[in-house]
Amino acid sequence: MTGAFVALGMGLAVIGAGIGLGSIGSKAMEAIARQPEAVGDIRSNMILMGALVEGAALIAIVMCFLVAG
Amino acid sequence: MGKNLGKTFLVFLSVLTLSFALHAKSDKDGHDDHHDGHDVNEFDAGATAFHHIADANVYSIGPWSIPLPCILYAPDKGWSIFSSSKFGVVGHHGDGHKAVDGYVLNGGSVNRIKPGQGFPDGEVELFSVEAFEKDAEAGHAMHPFHHKKIDGKEVSYFEYDHKEYLLDSKSTGDGGLFGGGITSYYDFSLTKNVVAMLLMTFFMIFIFIRVAKAYAARAGKAPKGLQGFIEPIFVFIQDEVAKPFLGHKWEKFLPFLMSLFFFILGLNLFGQIPFFGNANVTGNISVTVVLALFTFIVVNLNGNKNYWGHLFAMPGVPKWVLLILTPVELVGVLIKPLTLTLRLFANITAGHMVMVIFVGLIFVFGKSGQYAGLSYGTAVGSILLTMFMMAIELLVAFIQAFVFTILTASYIGAAVEEEHH
What we know:
The complex is a heterodimer of chains A (about 70) and B (about 425).
Chain A: H1 2-34, H2 39-68
Helix pairs in contact in A: 1-2
Chain B: H1 2-31, H2 45-53, E1 58-61, E2 64-67, E3 69-74, E4 78-83, E5 89-90, E6 95-96, E7 98-100, E8 103-106, E9 109-113, E10 123-125, H3 129-137, E11 145-150, E12 153-160, E13 163-168, E14 186-187, H4 192-217, H5 226-246, H6 250-270, H7 285-302, H8 305-312, H9 319-365, H10 372-416
Antiparallel strand pairs in B: 1-2, 3-4, 3-14, 5-6, 7-10, 8-9, 9-13, 11-12, 12-13
Helix pairs in contact in B: 1-10, 2-9, 4-6, 5-6, 5-10, 6-10, 7-9, 7-10, 9-10
């Protein structure tokens, strides 16, 4: 039973991260299209933000592993 | 050029396909044999993946095993120092056919036979090599070590002289959080990961001394060779990471950031070399914990008055809000190295596991090689997928090294920032 909840929790965490990463990516693309000369700055900030969003999802997934034991 | 590349790719693909499919076939004959009425050798993709990403006390390159020194300490017995060749590795699972001083080699990793079971000390032969090789030739892969669940915990055991002996796993410093804990012995060996780390350190020292000498010898001239390869990467980290995040103090922290970046990048790439031991160093949580700990120490040692002020007494916030805000800020200080640890660990581990599982698909679909046609068919598909994943993993190796460095730079930058209004 715990296994099912763990799988559900992992899925929810990934959905959250997916929404976050998707909006970061789309906004970054828009920004690059608007200001192609700022592509370097936008890219590194995009990766930084992506890493932060990913961090939240990773904590959730590790919690899932801990619950699964 | 394009045509040649295509031809090379096709040759490479067919060689790999053949080798994997033949491997599946050679396993097939063994997997026809049934032990006690059930197929003990049924392919377990998950277990195989975990075996391949784990640290080991032997360095295996293809079918060969290079022995590594074992340095073991048990409080009730003292130090045991010997080469892992003493275990006498047989087969490609990294199992040793001998027990040495109450230690055995189980799947490439040293385990101690739980003390108090009356197992004899010294070198003891668990099974004969001849019997193992005879079984292997008959296509019957022998597994000397088995697992079973005792009180919900997976415990390894083996049979010797018609008696079962339980094995103890290595002591870990996680306090039972990840299923480890302090057991009856400690392993200070030069494991596969340690060797890979040392190799990478010496390699980095060699490269950077050479590049530094090239700068001295070719002062004022355009970079050449190795120098020309390192310079763009170095300048990229310096201009894109160090300068924007650290302000005018960038020079002070540049050596730390560069060490982090090149160490992580080097080990990420080293782990990607196929058939070369595949040391999963940056995918080992102990390594990433230590790397994140360095960041934690550097950030908090260099934190100025402003940083600590924002931590304990955020300026411009009512006093009662501080009761909630300060604990949150303090947790944040600990969460930062935690996410650094987990991000690198999870990304690299996931990459390694996905590749093992893609190759494992050949064995899953071919029912451990019982259907040769399916094995060959899946081999083509799964090798294409694996190659695609390897290309992505090359990208991930750079991105994760970059992300670790850029986050470290941003944390240090926040800690050393001067007050501005």
